[in-house]
Write a structure and sequence with these properties.
By secondary structure, this protein is α/β, with parallel strands linked by helices. The chain has three domains: about 5-145, no CATH class; about 165-280, 2-Layer Sandwich (Nucleotidyltransferase, domain 5), CATH 3.30.420.40; about 285-465, ATPase, nucleotide binding domain (Nucleotidyltransferase, domain 5). It is about 40% helix and about 20% strand. The protein is built from 13 helices and 17 strands. The protein has helices spanning about 30-45, 75-95, 105-120, 120-135, 200-215, 250-255, 260-265, 280-290, 350-360, 370-385, 385-405, 425-440, 455-470; strands at about 50-55, 60-70, 100-105, 140, 165-170, 175-180, 185-195, 225-230, 235, 240, 275, 295-300, 305-310, 335, 340, 415-420, 450-455. α8 (about 280-290) crosses α13 and α11 (about 385-405) packs across α12.
Amino acid sequence: MDVHAPRLEGLERFLVSPGIVPPLDPGFRPSVLARRELAAEIERSGACVSVSLALEAPGRSVCRRETSVFEAGHSAARASHVACERLIKSMLWSRGGSRIWVDGPAELVAHLRRHYAEDPAGRFDSRTVGEAVYGAPLEVIAAARETFPVLRGEPSALGGHREGYRIGFDLGASDRKSAAVIDGEVVFSEEILWDPSRHEDPQWHFDQIMDSLRRAAEHLPRVDAIGGSSAGIYLDNEVRVASLFRSVPAAAFESRVRGIFGELRRAWGGIPFVVVNDGEVTALAGAMIAGVGGLLGVAMGSSEAAGFVTGEGGLTPWLNELAFTPIDFRSDAPLDEWSSDRGCGVQYLSQQAAGRLLPVAGIEPDPATSLPQRLVLLQELMARGDERALRVYETIGTYLGYALLEYRDWYDYHHLLLLGRVTSGPGGEIITARARAVLAAEAPDPVTEIHFHAVSERDKRHGQAVAAASLPSLGK
């Protein structure tokens, strides 16, 4: 028996076939539809127990959520507990936190504690979100809602600061970018290839980043502030989780890498210096270019990255790691081998999705072909009008449409910036059209209307630099 399958058992009776079916994945069962069906049946059953949840990042944000489960003894009580855990997982990876406050049945609390202690996917969440990001394993606290921590989590003041002489930088898996910016105008930018993930010495990483900053500084009379982005999770300019440093030994990571941006700031005389996740800066760049707020950025690349800009144009203290949030509730959904979980966004909205769907479409690449190479093959076939490639893109577009409905439960957005290599070329147009069709079919209410935005490659590169450089406020 697959050890991962029983964790979602019991939810089958609440799974709903989507109104628009992915052509290569008829078994897809969107989480947003399942949660709606479960909530309606709990309400109708007369066996409804209200549950209050709060997720706390100690000393930081708190988010709250109201839901319900079946009362003890009901045949679907366990299924409603599993659905509640799925809800909390989305809270964990979208908002962040290490303390889960629960005002609900004792059986639910026990189920959650077992999940984070015993289930592989729960242990991954506890180690990564709890320990690596916030410094403590996930803790499930049974308490009356009146004793829950006070709601916090207002948007930060990061971004939109154009005045002065600034440097913007971005650290990617294969290149590092830097730019010199004067009053919001890029006067110099460059990309330098690098391969940070295979280097063990923190000094190498420090020197490489410093080199990019110095090269940009040569084009400015002085440097007033530095802002940057990088793949990973960063809090207070500290590196919490980042694949760029995967080869650095644990002891060296703690002693040098975790505070590497603080060290760089000191080397630049303590000027304002801010680093955030690259998805955040991408969303900020899109919002600044489009002149809108309430924008969600989704990048479909090697993984799924995301960022959110509020209606007021600010960033948030949230994690926004949507690659790990569930969008499919079937028990045999695609498995993410890293997190040991099923049905999460990374398997649907990234190169991993394209690679997974190729054989299903009847396209058989060489087994040794990498995921980026498989995507290139898919794009070439699409450019030639291959029907098999069309079905791959239609399937990914269907996934995206239902994911966007799911994300509306977590973000107050009306604008979407779609990026990433999976969306390049004519296939990206198919993805967008299919997602629009899902939204029209499943959420016809104008309140749910989502405006899709695109930026040119030039605007994206310069916009990213301007947005990164704009992160720090002068004098702070």
